[in-house]
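Module 6 notes. Inverse folding takes a fixed backbone as the condition and produces residue identities as the prediction. Think of it as a translation problem where the source language is geometry and the target language is the twenty amino acids. Below is one complete input and output pair. Work through it position by position during the lab.
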């Protein structure tokens, strides 16, 4: 057993607590501040301490520090909050696909942070969602990058260590996921306002639900974004979907099956070329229609 004198404990304890209290006061971490005050109030009455008691005090101090770190984050666990310029440079250097939300405070953009949280979960391993609070500690970052914040916020994408482009897609979870999966690709078809009457099918589960629940006949247009014939046919399909003779009687739907998540659909319906158009009634395939490229 190692004995530690009261003066040694007081000197070390006051040093640790003093630093923590100073940092926590600046950050407004009320709970951690109270815990640290409580911890510091005990050591004057301790005459002799074993190492395990000192470890407990240090653990409590680390708990305070941990609360301080947690306070810096937004409450959205999958979204990375960056407030230090060096930290920002490290993130951009080590992450190849970063979508950053710069804002004058968190509260006005909580709805977008909620979207970020969902997107981050879907693109984990492929991309990083970052929040930078220009009204708090991250002022230096925003000033250094000369971020122009229309309406108090801005979305910017960084690729392979450099600024890539402004986020110019719809403010929806599906659009953000699509963007993060391929930031250089053209906007997905479902973002085209001219194609609003087309039923856009995102994944296998969405397709299964459509075929199982839709009472009207369904004409499915399976396509790849790069396919020239597909691009030519899209406006025609969109016009047909909006035709009064079609609305309410038939469903014209489109699905991008060129991404890995939808390969199972290609296998199910033996899709080997694009576009592939299949006619369904009551959820069952009736026949193929159209050319392939």
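Target side of the pair, the amino acids:
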């Amino acid at each position: 057993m190692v004995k530690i004198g009261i003066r040694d404990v007081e000197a070390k304890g006051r040093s640790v607590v003093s630093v923590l209290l100073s940092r926590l006061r600046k950050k407004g971490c009320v709970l951690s501040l109270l815990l640290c005050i409580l911890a510091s109030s005990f050591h004057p009455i301790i005459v002799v301490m074993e190492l395990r008691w000192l470890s407990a005090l240090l653990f409590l101090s680390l708990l305070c520090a941990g609360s301080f770190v947690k306070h810096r984050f937004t409450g959205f666990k999958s979204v990375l909050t960056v407030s230090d310029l060096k930290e920002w440079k490290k993130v951009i250097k080590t992450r190849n696909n970063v979508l950053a939300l710069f804002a004058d405070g968190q509260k006005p953009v909580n709805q977008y942070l909620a979207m970020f949280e969902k997107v981050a979960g879907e693109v984990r391993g492929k991309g990083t969602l970052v929040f930078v609070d220009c009204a708090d500690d991250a002022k230096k970052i925003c000033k250094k990058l000369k971020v122009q914040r229309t309406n108090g916020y801005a979305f910017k994408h960084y690729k392979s260590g450099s600024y890539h482009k402004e986020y110019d897609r719809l403010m929806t979870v599906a659009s953000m996921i699509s963007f993060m999966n391929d930031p250089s690709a053209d906007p997905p078809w479902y973002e085209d306002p001219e194609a609003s009457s087309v039923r856009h099918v995102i994944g296998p589960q969405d397709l299964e639900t459509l075929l199982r629940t839709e009472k009207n006949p369904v004409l499915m247009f399976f396509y790849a974004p790069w396919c020239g014939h597909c691009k030519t046919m899209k406006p025609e399909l969109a016009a047909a979907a909006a035709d009064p003779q079609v609305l309410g009687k038939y469903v014209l739907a489109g699905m991008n099956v060129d991404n890995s998540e939808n390969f199972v659909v290609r296998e199910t319906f033996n899709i080997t070329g694009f576009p592939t158009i299949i006619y369904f009634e009551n959820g069952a395939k009736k026949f193929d229609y159209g050319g392939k490229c």
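Reference fact for the lab report: Strands lie at 80-81, 97-103, 128-133, 153-159, 162-166, 199-201, 218-223, 251-256, 276-281, 284-289.
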